[in-house]
Structure formats: C-alpha cells, structure tokens
Write a structure and sequence with these properties.
alpha/beta; eight-stranded parallel barrel; two-stranded antiparallel ribbon; 11 helices; binds flavin mononucleotide
Length: 362
C-alpha cells in the first residue's frame, strides 16, 4: 500500500492517511460569518471523499478589522461555535478530522472594505494590490489581538474541532509580523527575529495555559514573501522560527509561501508538468531537518507519485492540496482506485468571491 494511505499522528490526533485538504476559503459563509448550509454540504462531500484531515478556510478572530474576504467565516465570538460544531460533526461521521484555521487580515483587506476604515498591520507599509496603507498597531491593540487569537483557539476546542491552525502565511497579520518587509517596528514586536516572533510566542504560550498541553495546534507558515532580495523573509529565519514554534507547543508545521502582492507564488498557475509540482519542497525539507514534529507540504501537488516521493524521501510527513479538491472532492478515493494524477489545471478560477467552484468540466 502507498505510504500516503498509512495512518499518521499529529500530537494526539490520529489521522487515517497522510492527505490533507489545505485551508481553502470558499466564500460561502453567511453574511455575518457563520457556517452556512452550503458549507456543511461541501465539507460532507470532502470528508466522504477519503481525505484524512480537512483544514477549514481561514476564519477571522477580530471584528471588523480582521476580516479578509467577502463571506468569510468568523470565530471572533462564541456565537460562531455552534456552526463549527455542526461542521466537525459532519466531517467526523465520514471518518475524517477537522482543524479550524484562524487568521487576522492585517494589511490584506478585502475588495468590499469600507472606505472609512483603516486596516491595521505591524507597520504602515502600503499594500500594493489595493493601494491602501495600514496604520501600525499600538501595543495595547497587539495585546487585544493576542487575546482574540487565544479566545478563538479555545472556541475551536469547544466546537469539537480536532485542532486549530494558526495562519502565519500569505501576508496576513501573523506572517506580516514575521517578515521584515512588513514589520519595520523598532519596539519589542519588531526588528530582531525574536521580536518578530513575539506575537506568536504570546499566542502559543497563553493558549496552552488555557487549553492545556494536549490540544493539537498546527501552523501554516510562509517560507518566503515571494520576493527575493534584501529586506524580505529568509529561509534561515523561517527555519529558526519553526524551531521556536515547536518549543512553544506547535504539533505540526505546514510549509507554504507568498503574499498577495507576490502574484502566483502561493497558488502557482498552470502546474501541468511533474517538474512544476511540489514548489515549496526545498523549504519544507529545510524545516523538517530542524524540527521533530510532522511537516506538511502544500503547493502544486498533483501526481500521486510525486506525493509518494515527498513522504518517502523525507521532505514532509503529510501532503496538503487545495485547488485539486475543488474539482475532485473525492480525489483521495480516486487515487485509491488507481487514478494517478489530479485533473486540476491550476487555472485559479476557483478564486471566486461569488463562491468556490471549478469551471473545468471533470
Ligand atoms: C480559492 C482558494 C482559497 C484559499 N484560501 C486559503 C485559506 O483560507 N487559508 C490558507 O492558508 N490558504 C488558502 N489558500 C491557499 C491554499 O491552501 C494552498 O496553499 C495553495 O492554493 C497551494 O496549494 P494547491 O496548489 O494545492 O492549490 C486558498 C487557495 C485557493 C485556491
């Protein structure tokens, strides 16, 4: 049997196989951010399709400045727990596990952002795709965001989710703190790598005090800003940060990259050849060599043989996919039945604020 169908453990969480549906915002939440019927249906279908672990789309922890997209799910209040409980129950019935991903938009605010609201970020660095310049968070505001993260993590546990994933990737607030490009602070939240990681340390150590040591906490981390050169995030910093994250209680690290200004880095278009797949493999290998928790690779994984190589050669312990599950929610069952490659053409038409769907006939 392929190594990908062998069970694996993340902290205390037992997964039936090594396939992960990477966090995917489906733009299908209710207007107020609650889980919708359509989402229940979507997750039921995914879970019955054979995947071991589903990570939800990112839900925002702080209202209103933390919202990153239209119809995004929210987890900033206890009233959202019930919807996630329904989602976790639906996924569990099908034998899969559910991890709730949580985020704060930071400077990457959505298209429908009200003109009178100023986004917040570590520093006032203009965001190129919207032209908006955020204002730098005050010390008191950073502490209130830390509290919001901890409260959201507790809500994930109360909802019966099998774990929570901190979104430290793709240019949203936590990755903006990590990167020297977006974090130009000279106080205790910036400058040195230790200070840029301080918000992560506070969230992780405080949440452990409230939730206990056992609840699975995962992270998805940027391995690059998506730009090369002086002043951007380096892989050496990421590897050092990964070591710290494990020390602060993280149970698994998913390796990704890119931010909104760096187009085509996170979800690289037209991944059609085997050589184009697994585009963050080098970064994942470097992280894996530095930590003793499972590493999850995401980005352009399409062929079963490539994914087997990723695990067999020690690049990562689990493989995560996003776009392929949009057109083939039952992809893992298809692999088990002998299909060799996902049909996804990486056309990126699934980035659709009107609701996640594939436009390619399968
Ligand atoms: C429509 C869409 C929504 C996404 N939403 C999220 C998200 O909520 N959180 C996240 O960490 N990544 C998100 N991503 C990025 C994916 O999880 C993944 O990292 C990226 O697409 C590369 O993997 P793939 O080649 O398998 O698609 C999204 C991607 C797509 C296409």
């Amino acid at each position: 049997m392929s190594v990908l169908f062998q069970p694996v453990t993340v902290g205390r969480l037992h997964l039936k196989n090594r396939f992960v549906r990477s966090a995917t915002n489906d733009y299908l939440g209710r207007l107020d951010g609650a889980i919708s019927e359509q989402q229940l249906e979507l997750y039921r279908e995914l879970a019955s399709g054979g995947v071991g672990l589903i990570v939800t789309g990112h839900a925002y922890v702080h209202h209103p400045l933390g919202r990153a997209s239209v119809n995004q799910n929210a987890i900033y209040d206890d009233r959202f727990i019930e919807g996630f409980r329904g989602l976790a129950d639906a996924v569990h019935v099908e034998g899969a596990a559910l991890v709730l991903q949580i985020s704060h938009a930071g400077r990457q605010t959505p298209q429908d952002w009200p003109a009178d609201q100023v986004p917040v970020a570590p520093s006032a660095v203009q965001e190129g795709t919207t032209g908006r310049t955020p204002r730098a968070l005050t010390d008191a505001e950073i502490w209130s965001i830390i509290d919001a993260y901890v409260a959201a993590m507790v809500r994930a546990k109360e909802a019966g989710c099998d774990g929570v994933q901190l979104h430290i990737a793709h240019g949203y607030l936590l990755s903006a703190f990590l990167s020297p490009y977006t974090n130009r602070r000279t106080d205790a939240w910036g400058d040195s790598l230790g200070n840029r990681c301080r918000i992560l340390r506070e969230i992780l150590t405080r949440s452990r005090r409230v939730m206990g040591e056992a609840y699975p906490v995962l992270v998805k981390i940027n391995s690059t800003d998506g730009f090369a050169g002086e002043g951007y995030l380096t892989l050496a910093d990421v590897v050092a940060a990964a070591r710290c994250l494990v020390e602060w209680g993280v149970n698994a690290i998913e390796v990704s990259g890119g931010q909104r200004e760096a187009k085509g880095v996170m979800s690289r278009p037209k991944v059609l050849e085997i050589e184009q797949e697994a585009y963050f493999a080098d970064a994942a290998r470097a992280v894996k060599a530095a930590v003793n928790v499972p590493v999850i690779l995401v980005g352009g994984l399409r062929s079963l043989s490539v994914m087997e190589d990723v695990v067999a050669s020690g690049v990562a312990d689990l493989v995560a996919l996003s776009r392929p599950f949009v057109c083939e929610p039952d992809l893992v069952n298809r692999f088990r039945a002998g299909q060799a490659r996902a049909v996804c053409a990486s056309c990126n038409a699934c980035f659709n604020p009107a609701g996640l769907r594939c436009r390619r006939p399968v």
